[in-house]
């Protein structure tokens, strides 16, 4: 096994391209380990990550995307830095987003979000997923191949969330253009004009404007429900608070689901016998999606901050320490999963992965992502006899050439060219 003791996980490009040897290194006796370059406490073990996820009083989400080198504007001192952190939240990247909130603010905003993602709404949204899948396949299948991420997954996941939140279908082409995705579906050519610096910045303005409009003139649709939603205590959120929740659902839900879909299709094509087995036994598709999440979680890891001095797996963690929870490693913990590097859709504990997190911050979009995966795979199977990875783009089976996103938080392909019969 490679010794990664002196490797900088956060800057080494070879680790970003293939993280799993590094994860194996941690799981082999370093399930909680302070890496030497930034002083970040790396938590790789399944049990240890669960412990952190379930203890929001000790481990804060405030720095969830802040990075290994972020420094608070004041020095965090003492064995309990909770009050100091609260005074500095505005200085933390994404500090205005629900993913970085802690109770009681998180409780209120999550209550608002869950009021929007109801079982009834999810069922209606799934009906839209089937129609949308057919609509997009009508565009990409006739050509016999597509670059799956740009041509299908990116626009598909964006429009699924748009429908969930009640964005009228008449606004969908505008959303695709402003987000810079779905060019093939829209029939666009040439350079984009007027696209915001961040592809989802426009959502703040879109939803704030719509919420204000529908509070003045309610219409009885889903967006009106968003506009009239209240916090659990009965108070009315500011329009921008609702807009932030909606935009966060877009940004977090779209990116991770795109990576899930592309990984699932790659595995379907590359794992010997898997595609035929799933085609013949469609009831196994949900289990396959769970095993995909376990084996190659879209989230490599996310940060936490120790609010109080504590001990985890025998390792002392002083208050103020930056922690990185390695979701991508937990699915390969041999203490939890037998033969963890193998794809086994019939493993008995297939749903015990924690790719969607756990505790109060469990991903609220988990049912949505699972449904998207199932619908896309089923519809592709319905409308094709065979799906293949393009050898021209990625090389022959057994010697594939895949490029992965060079990040320390997200696991996913840059591109995936598929061919269809």
The assigned CATH architecture is Orthogonal Bundle
Biggest sheet, spatial arrangement of strands:
1-2-8-5-3
| CATH fold category name | Cytochrome p450
Fraction of residues in helices? 40-55%
Overall mean pLDDT:
91
**In percent, how much strand structure appears in the residues?**
5-15%
What is the CATH first-level class name?
Answer: Mainly Alpha
Shape: globular
Q: What is the CA-atom radius of gyration, in angstroms? A: 22 Å
Sheet/helix structural class = alpha+beta
Please, what is the oligomeric state?
A: single chain
**Fourth CATH level, the homologous superfamily:** Cytochrome P450
What is the distance, rounded to the nearest whole angstrom, between the alpha carbons of the first and last residues? Answer: 41 Å
Quick one: biggest sheet? 5 strands, mixed
Q: Order of helices and strands, N to C? A: HHEEHEHHHEHHHHHHHHEEEEHHEHE
- Please tally the helical runs, counting DSSP H or I stretches of 4 or more residues: 17
Would you write up a description of this structure?
There is one protein chain. With 421 residues, the chain is α+β, with helices and mostly antiparallel strands. It has one domain (13-420): Cytochrome p450, CATH 1.10.630.10. It contains 17 helices and 10 strands. The strands form 3 sheets. The chain has a 5-stranded mixed β-sheet with strand order 1-2-8-5-3, with helices on one face. A hairpin with a 2-residue loop joins strand 6 and strand 7 (315-317). Helix 14 (285-295) packs across helix 16. The longest helix is centred in the middle third of the chain and has 32 residues, at 239-270. Mean pLDDT is 91; it is low at 189-199.
């Amino acid at each position: 096994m490679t010794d990664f003791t002196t490797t900088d996980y956060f800057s080494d490009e070879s680790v970003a391209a293939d993280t799993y040897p590094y994860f194996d290194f941690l799981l082999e006796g370093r399930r909680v380990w302070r890496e030497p370059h930034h002083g970040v406490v790396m938590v790789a073990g399944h049990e240890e990550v669960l412990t952190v996820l379930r203890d929001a009083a000790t481990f804060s989400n405030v720095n969830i995307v802040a990075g290994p080198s972020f420094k608070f504007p004041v020095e965090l001192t003492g064995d309990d830095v909770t009050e100091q952190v609260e005074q500095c939240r505005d200085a933390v990247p994404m500090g205005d987003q629900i993913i970085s909130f802690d109770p009681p603010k998180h409780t209120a905003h999550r209550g608002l979000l869950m009021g929007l993602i109801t079982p009834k709404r999810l069922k209606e949204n799934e009906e839209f997923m089937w129609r949308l899948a057919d609509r997009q396949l009508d565009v990409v299948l006739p050509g016999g191949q597509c670059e799956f991420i740009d041509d299908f997954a990116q626009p598909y996941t964006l429009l699924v969330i748009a429908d969930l939140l009640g964005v009228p279908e008449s606004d969908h082409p505008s959303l695709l253009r402003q987000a810079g995705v779905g060019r093939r579906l829209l029939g666009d050519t040439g350079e984009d004009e007027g696209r915001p610096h961040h592809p989802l910045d426009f959502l703040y303005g879109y939803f704030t404007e719509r919420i204000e409009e529908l509070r003045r003139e309610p219409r009885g649709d889903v967006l009106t429900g968003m506009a009239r939603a209240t916090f659990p205590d009965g108070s009315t959120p500011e329009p921008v608070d609702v807009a932030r929740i909606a935009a966060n659902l877009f940004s977090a839900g779209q990116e991770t689901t795109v990576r899930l879909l592309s990984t699932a299709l790659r595995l379907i094509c590359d794992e010997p016998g898997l595609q035929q087995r799933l085609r013949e036994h469609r009831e196994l598709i949900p289990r396959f999606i769970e095993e995909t999440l376990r084996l190659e979680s879209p989230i490599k890891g996310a940060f936490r901050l120790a609010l109080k001095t504590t001990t985890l797996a025998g390792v002392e963690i002083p208050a103020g320490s930056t922690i990185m929870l390695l979701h991508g490693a937990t699915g390969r913990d041999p203490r939890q999963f037998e033969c963890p590097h193998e794809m086994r859709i019939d493993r008995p504990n297939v749903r015990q992965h924690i790719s969607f997190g756990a505790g109060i911050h469990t991903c609220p979009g988990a049912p949505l992502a699972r449904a998207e995966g199932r619908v896309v795979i089923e519809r592709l199977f319905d409308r094709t006899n065979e799906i293949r990875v393009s050898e021209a783009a990625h090389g022959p089976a057994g010697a594939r050439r895949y490029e992965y996103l060079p990040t320390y938080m997200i696991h996913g392909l840059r591109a995936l060219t598929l061919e269809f019969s």
